Amino acid sequence: MAVRETVPMSRDYGFAVLPDVLSRQEIAVLSDAITRLRTERSRAGARNMLRHPDVASLARDPRLLEIATATLAEQARPFGATLFDKSPRANWLVVWHQDTALPLEARRDVPGWGPWSVKGGVLYAHAPTAALNRVVALRVHLDDSTTSNGPLRVLPGSHALGVLQDDEIARLAASVQPVECLASQGSIVMMRPLVVHSSSKAAIPAPRRVIHIEYTGASEQEGGLVIP
Length: 228
Fold this sequence. Notes:
Oligomer: single chain
CATH superfamily: q2cbj1_9rhob like domain
Strand content: 25-35%
Distance between the termini: 40 Å
Radius of gyration: 17 Å
Largest sheet: 6 strands, antiparallel
């Protein structure tokens, strides 16, 4: 199915669709690497993907670093990567939300941070707005993301409102026109963690694999907290 990509949005909206960043040959190599991970991942994907050389190399690709650095207006480095694999075997709905948890090396009681949790053996804490404003995610599309296979949906500009409560997100979702981030294979969707986003279940049996890479311009946070 052909994909009609959304018009790239200004970073002021909290997201942008950047077409054809990677070639089909590069995507084929990545896809082969992902296939080899079958024994160490769930049906829906995998966490801690920077441990894998192919994904670590992708995250440090000069093209991706340039995008992340330009968005953050400071030198960016990758600190996390997750594979999302929406398919007929793993077809899920994601409600409107923000990404507010950051991985940290050690727990410290610092105002504005928490609650704390452990995911995939990694310590996380929900972070304040100031820390999240120095983070950006680049979503590398291994498959076409179409209106029928559960694409990312965002509420433009919502990242500028800071960390929101659940009831505030619900009111916003009822009043702001969402945008579907349609992107062809090899394209990248840039998104801020505080932009309110969701995705529906896929309506057709087509895969939608995405490598979601997170970058920061500041490893050391207030109170001695450090992003690994």
